[in-house]
Design goal:
Helices cover about 5% and strands about 40% of the residues. The strands form eight sheets. Strands 12, 13, 14, 16, 18, 19 and 21 form a seven-stranded mixed sheet that branches. A six-stranded mixed sheet has the order 1-15-23-22-17-20. It is mainly beta. The radius of gyration is 24 Å and the shape is globular. It contains six helices and 40 strands. The longest helix is centred in the N-terminal third of the chain and has 14 residues. Bound molecules: CU-O-CU linkage and copper (II) ion (2 copies). CU-O-CU linkage binds next to strand 7 and strand 32.
C-alpha cells in the first residue's frame, strides 16, 4: 500500500507539469517489525539537487532510516552494524530500558563492529525515535541523515478508533532543515539553521491523503529550530498525544509549537475535501523572540538563514477519495492516564540552563548548572524507585528543549501555572522558554546500575555536543551516595607523568596507558592512518585497558583528551594475535 502511494505520487509528478515544478512526492520510511531488528549504518550519498550529490549517512539507506514497529511487552533484540568510517552510538530516544542498552555516549560502537542491545518494551504506544549520540559528534551524524522512527503499539491504543494504517492515514513526518554549501554538501559546523525544509528526506514534499480523519506523527529533528505548526487555511486540528503516550482527551488547537526532539500526534479532519489541496505550515513569522528560529533572515552568521522568522511550507497535500474503512470522527475520549502523585515526591532537584559568561553573543556556549559535561562526573545519584520533582530553570539568553533519558515525566507547572492541556501528557522533552522554570514529576523505576549513567541534556544538537549535558545514576537500595555527590568522579585522579605512554607496544589485545591524568581523562580516541576514528573509549572505561583486539593489523594513533581539553598523542603498532 505504501509503495502504491509512492508510485501513484510519482506518476502524478510525471504527468502534471505544474505539480512537477513545485513538489516532490513525500517518502514514507519502510517499516521493520521485531522481535529482531537489523540496522546497518552506512556512509553514502543522496541526490538532493541536480548536479553534485550530497554525502549522507543512513540506517539501511541514504537518509532517515526504517520505522521500527514494536509491541509493548515484546522482547526485542537489536543488531546495529556500524559500517560508517567513524565510531558512533545509537540511542532509543524516549524508551525506558537499562542504561547499558540506552545507546547514550557511553555505549560506543567502533566502525566495523556490531552492537546488540536487547530489552523488553515497556513504553506506552507513542512515537519515539532512534539516533546517534556520540558525544561531540551528535550534530554531525544527525545532520548527515542518521535517525529513524520507532513506533510502539499497545492494546489501549489499538482499542481506539484512530487512523493507524501506516503511510495511508497514519503519516510519520520527520521535519528538519538544512543549509548546503555551493557544492551541495551540508553546512553544520558554522550553521545550525537550514535554508531548506526536509521532510522524510524530501524537499518541497507533497503527499496524497484520503478525505477522512488523518493522523500525523510529527517529530522535530531540526538541529536547532522550533516549528510553529498549523494548517494553511488555519483550520483546527486535534493533538491526541505527545512524546510518551496518548492524552486523556484530544485537544483542539490551530497552532502548535514544537521544540527539537518533541513529538506530537495530531488528527486533521479532511472529510469532504476530496480534490482540494492543503499545506502543513510552520508559521514561524509569529515566533516570539526567545524561540529558536525567530532570528530574522538577515541576522549575521551563524544564525542567519532563509527560513528565519518566516512562514514556510512543511508538506503539501492533495486530497483524494477516502479509503474503504475510514475514520471520520474525532474520538471524544482517548486513554485514562494515571497521574503521579506529588504527595509521593521524596526529592526535588534543580537544573539551571545557562550560558558560559564573558562570551560574545555569536560565540556563546551554553551549559547546565554552570559547567560542561564530564564523562567521569556523576551529576546526580537517584535512588531506585524515587518519585521526584525536577525544576528546570532557564537563566540563559534563549530557550532550550530539555530532554532526560530513562523516564517519561509529566509537567507539574511552568512558572507556577499548570501546563496547557496538550503538554500535560507523558513527555521526555520539554521546551523551556527563556526565563521560565518548568517543574516535572517522574518516577525512576526498574533499572538501577552503579556504573552506567543515563543522560539529560539540551537537545539542540550543538548545545549537547558543546557539553550542555549531564548524567545521573539510578542506584540500588543500600548504595552509599558520595557526600559531595555533585562533584563525585567515577575514577580518581592518579598520575601526573608526561608525556603519554602506551604499553605494550606493539600490542595485540589490550592497550594500557600512563598519564596524563591530573585533570581527569575524558576520552581515548584511536585513529587509523586515514584519520578515521576507529575507536573511542570514555576515560573511566579506558582506565581498565583499551580493547583493540578487533582492529586490523597496522599503525594507529591514540589521542587522549583530558578534562581541560588538552590532547596527548601516541602511536602504536597493532599486531594480529599469535
Ligand atoms: Cu534524543 Cu539524549 O537524546
Ligand atoms: Cu533520549
Ligand atoms: Cu540549548
Amino acid at each position: 500500500m505504501k509503495r502504491l502511494l509512492l508510485i501513484t505520487g510519482f506518476v502524478f509528478y510525471l504527468l502534471n507539469p505544474g505539480f512537477a515544478q513545485n513538489y516532490n512526492p513525500l517518502q514514507i520510511p519502510d517499516t521493520l517489525v521485531g522481535p529482531t531488528f537489523e540496522l546497518n549504518m552506512i556512509d553514502t550519498f543522496r541526490q538532493f539537487f541536480p548536479g553534485q550529490q550530497t554525502i549522507t549517512s543512513g540506517f539501511n539507506g541514504n537518509w532517515w532510516g526504517p520505522t521500527l514497529i514494536m509491541q509493548k511487552g515484546e522482547s526485542v533484540q537489536m543488531y546495529v552494524h556500524n559500517h560508517l568510517n567513524d565510531s558512533t552510538t545509537v540511542h532509543w530516544h524516549g524508551l525506558h530500558l537499562p542504561a547499558v542498552m540506552d545507546g547514550g555516549p557511553h555505549q560506543i560502537i567502533p566502525p566495523g563492529t556490531t552492537w546488540s542491545p536487547y530489552w523488553k518494551v515497556d513504553n506506552a504506544a507513542a512515537t519515539y525515535f532512534y539516533h546517534p549520540h556520540l558525544h561531540e559528534m551528535t550534530e554531525k551524524q544527525l545532520v548527515h541523515g542518521l535517525g529513524g522512527f520507532l513506533i510502539v503499539r499497545d492494546s489501549a491504543e489499538a482499542a481506539l478508533k484512530l487512523p493507524r494504517t501506516y503511510g495511508v492515514d497514519d503519516i510519520p513526518l520527520a521535519i528538519t532543515d538544512r543549509k548546503f554549501t555551493s557544492d551541495n554538501q551540508f553546512r553544520y559546523t558554522d550553521a545550525h539553521y537550514g535554508d531548506t525544509v526536509i521532510v522524510n528526506g524530501v524537499m518541497n514534499a507533497s503527499a496524497t491523503l484520503p478525505a477522512q480523519v488523518v493522523r500525523f506523527r510529527l517529530l522535530n529533528v531540526a538541529q536547532e529550530r522550533a516549528y510553529l505548526i498549523g494548517l494553511s487555511d488555519n483550520r483546527n486540528f486535534w493533538v491526541i498525544g505527545g512524546d510518551g503516550g496518548l492524552l486523556d482527551t484530544p485537544v483542539v488547537m490551530n497552532r502548535l509549537l514544537m521544540g527539537v526532539a518533541e513529538r506530537y500526534e495530531i488528527l486533521v479532519d479532511l472529510t469532504g475535501m476530496e480534490g482540494k489541496e492543503l499545506k502543513l505550515m510552520a508559521f514561524n513569522a509569529s515566533l516570539e523572540t526567545d524561540v529558536n528560529g525567530s532570528e530574522p533572515v538577515n541576522t549575521p552568521a551563524p544564525f542567519g538563514n532563509k527560513l528565519g522568522r518566516r512562514n514556510f511550507m512543511i508538506l503539501h497535500f492533495k486530497i483524494a477519495a477516502k479509503t474503504n474503512n475510514p475514520v471520520t470522527n474525532i474520538p471524544s475520549q482517548l486513554i485514562p492516564n494515571t497521574q503521579l502523585d506529588t504527595a509521593d515526591v521524596v526529592k526535588q532537584r534543580q537544573v539551571v540552563l545557562g550560558d558560559e559568561p564573558n562570551q560574545n553573543i555569536f560565540n556563546v556556549r551554553s551549559w547546565l548548572d554552570g559547567r560542561f559535561f564530564k564523562f567521569d562526573r556523576i551529576d546526580h545519584y537517584v535512588p531506585l524507585d524515587n518519585t521526584e520533582i525536577w525544576a528546570i530553570k532557564d537563566e540563559s539568553a534563549g530557550s532550550h528543549p530539555f530532554h532526560i533519558h530513562d523516564v517519561q515525566f509529566r509537567i507539574v507547572d511552568i512558572n507556577g501555572a499548570p501546563p496547557p492541556a496538550h503538554r500535560a501528557g507523558w513527555k521526555d522533552v520539554v521546551y523551556v522558554r527563556r526565563n521560565t522554570t518548568v517543574r516535572f514529576i517522574t518516577k525512576f523505576s526498574d533499572f538501577a546500575d552503579t556504573i552506567k549513567p543515563f543522560m539529560y541534556h539540551c537537545h539542540i544538537l550543538f548545545h549537547e555536543d558543546e557539553g550542555m549535558m549531564a548524567q545521573f545514576l539510578v542506584v540500588p537500595p543500600g548504595f552509599q551516595i558520595p557526600a559531595d555527590s555533585t562533584s563525585a568522579v567515577i575514577s580518581p585522579v592518579q598520575n601526573t607523568n608526561y608525556p603519554i605512554e602506551v604499553f605494550p607496544n606493539p600490542a595485540s589485545s589490550v592497550l594500557f596507558f600512563k598519564g596524563p591524568q591530573d585533570a581527569g581523562m575524558y576520552y581515548a580516541d584511536v585513529f587509523n592512518e586515514l584519520g578515521y576514528n576507529v575507536l573511542r573509549v570514555p576515560g573511566p572505561d579506558a582506565e581498565n585497558g583499551i580493547n583493540i583486539s578487533f582492529l586490523p593489523q597496522g599503525t594507529y594513533f591514540i589521542r587522549f583528551t583530558d578534562q581541560k581539553k588538552r590532547m596527548y598523542i601516541a602511536q602504536f603498532l597493532k599486531l594480529s594475535r599469535e
